[in-house]
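Appendix B, record 7
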Amino acid sequence: MGKKGLHIHETDDCSAIAQKSMGGHFAPKDEDHGLPTASEHHLGDLGNITIADDGQGKLKITIPSANLNPADPKSFIGKAIVLHEADDKGSGKSGNSGKPIACAPIKPS
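Structure tokens (predicted):
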């Protein structure tokens, strides 16, 4: 399977991921896209996750200033985590990581 781009998107609407019902990458300060290590990147740019042939993958990442407080404008609550078909190259508006292939809403517990 290989590397796949992983991003937080603007809304938690995963009803039509091919039509991007979840909106674009979460960028509350209208930053340019980049990998998490770049000096400028969307708050929702998580980089890449490696997916094994059995479909399993794990990514451990800390996103400074992001949180799960629904009242905060930098909160991931009410957004969606989206897996893309290819690796995020860190360029362009969305990393050139291809079509979204999986989406999961981020809800409060």
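Remarks on this record: The beta strands are 2-9, 45-51, 80-84, 100-105. The chain has a mean pLDDT of 93.
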